[in-house]
Amino acid sequence: EICRRWYEQWKEYVETGDQNSSSFPGQIDNTELFEELDSYHLKERLVENEDFVLIPAEAWHKLLAWYGMVEVQPALERKVVDLPSLVKVEVYPVEIFLCLHSNMENVVTAQFSRADHIRKRNSVEEQDSYRGQPGVCGLTNLGNTCFMNSALQCLSNTPPLTEYFLRNAYLEELNFTNPLGMKGEIAEAYADVIKQMWSGRHYSVVPRIFKTKVGHFASQFLGYQQHDSQELLSFLLDGLHEDLNRVKNKEYIELRDAAGRPDQEVAEEAWRNHRRRNDSAIVDTFHGLFKSTLVCPECRKVSVTFDPFCYLSVPLPVSKDRVMEVFFVSLDPVAKPVQHRLVVPKAGKVFDLCSVLSEMTNIPANQMVVADVFNHRFYKLYHADESLSCILDRDDIFVYVKKQGSMEEEGDEVVLALYLRERSHYRDYGSGSSSYGTSLFGHPLLMTVPRGQCSRDALYHLFLQRLAGGAGASGGAGASGGAGASGGASVDASATGPTDSQQGAGHQQPCEEEEEERGECPPCLPQANRRQAKRKGCEARRRKLLFSIQAVNSNGTTERGMGEDGSAFSFSSQPYVAMDWDPDMKKKYYNENEAEKYVKHQSMEVPHQQTTVQLQECIELFTTVETLEEENPWYCPMCKKHQLATKKLDLWSLPEVLIIHLKRFSYTKYSREKLDIIVDFPLRLTGTNGEPPSRYDLIAVSNHYGGLRDGHYTSYARNKDNGQWYYFDDSKVTYAREEQIVTNAAYLLFYHRQDKIRQPTLPAPLDSSSPTQPANDVSSPKHDGMEGATPCVNMETD
What we know:
Blueprint: E1 2-3, H1 4-16, E2 34-36, E3 41-42, E4 52-53, H2 57-67, E5 80-83, E6 86-89, E7 94-100, E8 103-112, E9 138-139, H3 146-156, H4 159-166, H5 185-197, E10 204-205, H6 208-217, H7 229-243, H8 263-277, H9 281-286, E11 288-295, E12 302-309, E13 312-315, E14 321-329, E15 338-345, H10 350-361, E16 368-374, E17 377-382, E18 396-401, E19 413-428, E20 433-450, H11 456-466, H12 500-505, H13 513-518, H14 530-536, E21 547-551, E22 576-581, H15 583-589, H16 592-595, E23 599-600, E24 612-614, H17 615-622, E25 626-627, E26 634-636, E27 641-643, E28 646-653, E29 657-663, E30 665-667, E31 672-674, E32 678-680, E33 684-687, E34 694-706, E35 711-718, E36 725-729, E37 732-735, E38 746-753, H18 781-784
Parallel strand pairs: 9-10, 13-29, 14-18, 15-23, 19-22, 24-32
Antiparallel strand pairs: 1-4, 2-3, 5-6, 7-8, 11-12, 11-28, 14-15, 16-17, 16-18, 19-20, 21-22, 25-28, 26-27, 29-38, 30-31, 33-34, 34-35, 34-38, 35-36, 36-37
Helix pairs in contact: 3-7, 5-6
């Protein structure tokens, strides 16, 4: 495994073909993948191609040889587990806690591959003899098939459908001649998976045949790309319906206009017409009725129709604003960074963020530079016209003031990205030479520097002044300078810089040992010329610099070339500079704890709560009046032309199993985003327009973690036999509690009606020429007792 950020920067560097490019990635760094740097445990729920990428071992060894790796970090080598009918990369090995029975306090953690837990150890019976709770069975990920596994687990825990397949009722209703069906193949493949999952004999099932059948009849699901679990569910329910349709010959039915008739009469007629062409266990279980009302804006003609539905796709309230937290870094060297909480347009640009911050700081927005800081370095410097959607909530955003005034010409200045690094000496025993490594620390800085002051001597003085409020003396009598306004000891910015010899060498000159021991080496005076020292005596002793200056890549991990004369820097394509500190100088004269401190703006005092909406709000939004778009007008029979009519949907009758699709993926002409707001859905809900009210229990939830491009699907489901909730993550199944179910990852909700538990479905007669009524028509308006013209669903939690 390799961190995706490093990998993407490496790709950018390779694609540019410029060895001096600032995108040079430096050493491989997987810090972002670890929960704790002490134990190097991986974070939970890392997503491939979003958090990390997998590369072959040969490619890894090449990259390691070319770039090296950050010190101490372990290589994230993962095995490809080769099991029967399964090849899988094991991202998370099994962790087992081990201890001796005689000393149970000394517990150690060991990791094992899933490939060597049964056959190699012979300590557990073979899976064929396994006996577990029916239905509590994982599904193997065949390669980005978590979307399919999540949908299957939800359907598997839908009692009426699963019982229908387990008692083989489907065998008498397979429709092999339906031109809209799949010749019964989808139904048979699905039945095979369900029977294996509910046999109680498997830890997990490999749905390879089912996956092949789905790809055969729906080419969009071919291969191993990530897909949408709702799209798979929609295809599967439609395919099962057509494979199990009891109507062999679909007759043509001419639809009649409502013509002022009562809604109840029109609804019953629409339902009968629907059942004359569509009569299956899927219709029995999942189909309900919408009431659609269209009103012509010109003649006020009202058209009422009733349409069947299989699931509700409800929108989520979309806020036009977004809350972001940023750190503002002023030009005042004594002032500490200030954390602000901003409300910015969700579809805005980076300049909009700067404009809002400008109102709080009185700094012009065009003097601000927005940066993403990660691991003491700049991960990205944003342009003013970039979209704010590029910035994630988890990013650490710093806003810097790039200049106080303006020079005569813009080209006379250069904005330097400044890193702080600490040297660590080590000896190369292969060559016998002594060298040093570096590690970043502190917050990086941005400084506007005149191009005429890019020599080492000039930059040293500029950097020293900038650090006056951030570098604090943590001890030592040689520190020149007193306490800063912010409480930290500042460095004397009036001191002179390095000598010409030091500029050329680019290194610090060591102090005399006895001066080091007495702590009498001021950090910022230059080493006096030896001849001048002899003339002036002991008053001008050799001094040691606070830091040396190096041009580096954008990661601050690799030193880059200097200018032609070796003493000045060329910044045509390399605006990154590092200050390298020796450990002893950093310890004496840089107070890292003080420099890391920041203050909170009053905007941070207002508590920020994650947006939460009620499920009822989403349903109300679904049933609000809307105006048709120009691309989809309605033909008014009175005006004899297409009109942009108003349209309103109402829930007229509810099915036995109600599926609610939360539309988290928002697509507009100008933007795309995933809505991560929490939808507070109840475990039990009630439809209040019937007598008695219809009662529903939550039985399953399909979850989506991640973003638009990549993600991972899991599911929660309640076992129909023991009532226990379980969490299904591909082949892994664990117990779950009800309070864990409501999260911002919930995507599909399955509710089962409890006030009317239907009897087993009886096979329909082979002669379907005449319309038939289902024996268990819980979806029919006349059986639902929904007499009102404007049914609604109110959510109540028991």
